[in-house]
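Query structure, 490 tokens:
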């Protein structure tokens, strides 16, 4: 039976998103506006947009579902992400903003090619291809989450539910570009934050207190300690594997794009504070939802564990307030997919069309190429998402690991190394990606999260190749020194 109060809430939410897209459609006049908002974002928009696009539907579905299924030891994912977020803002954000502004880079792949003076263009091309591959997988995870949400709330057929979610996200991203994405992310980040605080509080009261939840966890035989795997090698490997999610931050193009688009590095300290408060509270709330859910909605199985947040809202709140809180799950999904579509569009437009196909293309032409690319990528992701057996966390972990293994070491070397050669970076990107894919397809991800061997293989390759290709390019050394001086001055 359709819940009309929730349906009305969702329709109003969709109309709001469309209005934002139309508004910023009128304010987008060139490619930099469409891809980076003219590099004019303030601290609040940058912080909440970065974190809302970071967390996606897995924050309110994947993570609570994992905790519901296995217990509190899944909190290492949250701990790793919190640490990764902190160091990403502290180490990467200021230098990346300075460098990309100086080099006029609008994509991560373009920045890596420009920063290392790659004369072949291979870094730009291969990085763009990797971006397209993993973002298509990543975007499909969001559409899977949207499909499961609509099925649970409205009893829709899964395929139709996925298509509805895709159409809404495509439209406002297509129209408004980076500005529409960031401003909708600000609203969506606030909505997610509200939901992740309210639901655990009400859920705890409904369950009857901490002792009742503790008994429920014990009855299910779930882990009740962060160190369930024991103090031995197996336990250490399990913790490292789970915390390794934090390594992924250094290579996520959709998050790094927020750092590239902020107005000034002077805005970053405030943005970092806002982001860290949001992240710590949101991750803690998601873990608590998974634990409380064992008592409030017991007996979930067969992949339905990822619906624990949805079912708690449906059972604990009146339809109107429930509709608003469920819209937070939709916000989490959309705030990430719109960013992924835009960054993928950026890779095709800036790194392929402008630099390879039509170097003399006008800004108007490039904007429309970018919009067309949004449609193409979204359609491919939609086809992948039509498989109802896909899990949100599984798809996200593969794409997240792919970006971390491919780009994390390259970004760190670009920002902190004076003499790394472009050949070393290219080799590292290729080796890191190949190792990750092979590790995953051999089924070794159950032993160690594939980002770890991929990341380490990338760094080792760069280190070894630098003995042969380490460079003394005067332009690159001069740019490095200028950025360091600017950072020191604040």
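Result returned for the query:
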């Amino acid at each position: 039976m359709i819940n009309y109060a929730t349906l009305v809430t969702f329709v109003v939410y969709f109309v709001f998103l469309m209005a934002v897209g139309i508004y910023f459609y009128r304010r987008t006049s060139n490619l930099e506006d469409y891809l980076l908002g003219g590099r004019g974002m303030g601290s609040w928009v940058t912080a909440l947009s970065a974190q809302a696009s970071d967390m996606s539907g897995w924050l309110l579905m994947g993570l609570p579902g994992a905790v519901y299924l296995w217990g509190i030891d899944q909190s290492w994912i949250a701990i790793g992400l919190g640490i990764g977020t902190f160091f990403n803002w502290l180490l990467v954000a200021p230098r990346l903003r300075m460098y990309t502004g100086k080099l006029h880079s609008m994509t991560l792949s373009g920045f890596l090619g420009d920063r290392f003076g790659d004369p072949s263009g291979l870094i730009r091309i291969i990085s763009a291809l990797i971006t397209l591959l993993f973002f298509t997988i990543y975007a499909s995870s969001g559409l899977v989450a949207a499909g499961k949400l609509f099925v649970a709330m409205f009893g829709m057929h899964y395929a139709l539910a996925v298509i509805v979610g895709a159409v809404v996200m495509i439209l406002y991203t297509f129209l408004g570009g980076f500005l529409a994405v960031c401003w909708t992310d600000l609203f969506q980040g606030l909505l997610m934050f509200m939901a992740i605080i309210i639901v655990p509080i009400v859920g705890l009261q409904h369950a009857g207190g901490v002792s009742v939840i503790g008994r429920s966890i014990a009855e299910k035989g779930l882990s009740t300690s962060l160190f369930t795997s024991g103090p031995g090698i197996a336990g250490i490997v399990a913790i490292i594997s789970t915390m390794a999610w934090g390594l992924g931050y250094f290579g996520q193009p959709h998050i790094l794009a927020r750092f590239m688009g902020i107005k000034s590095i002077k805005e970053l300290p405030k943005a970092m504070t806002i982001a860290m408060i949001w992240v710590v509270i949101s991750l803690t709330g998601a873990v608590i939802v998974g634990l409380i859910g064992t008592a409030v909605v017991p007996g979930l199985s067969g992949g339905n564990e990822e619906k624990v947040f949805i079912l708690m809202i449906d059972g604990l709140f009146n339809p109107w307030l429930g509709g608003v809180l469920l819209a937070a799950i939709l916000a989490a999904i959309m705030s990430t997919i719109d960013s992924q579509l835009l960054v993928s569009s950026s890779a095709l437009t800036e790194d392929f069309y402008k630099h390879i196909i039509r170097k003399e293309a006008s800004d108007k032409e490039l904007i429309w190429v970018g919009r067309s690319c949004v449609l193409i990528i979204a359609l491919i992701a939609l086809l992948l998402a039509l498989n109802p057996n896909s899990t949100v966390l599984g798809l996200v972990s593969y794409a997240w690991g792919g970006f971390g293994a491919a780009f994390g070491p390259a970004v760190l070397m670009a920002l902190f190394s004076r003499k790394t050669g472009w050949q070393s970076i290219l080799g590292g990107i290729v080796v890191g990606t190949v190792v990750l894919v092979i590790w995953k397809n051999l089924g070794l991800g159950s032993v160690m999260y594939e980002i770890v061997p991929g990341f380490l293989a990338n760094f080792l390759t760069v280190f070894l190749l630098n003995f042969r290709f380490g460079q003394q390019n005067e332009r690159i050394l001069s740019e490095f020194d200028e950025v360091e001086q600017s950072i020191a001055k604040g």
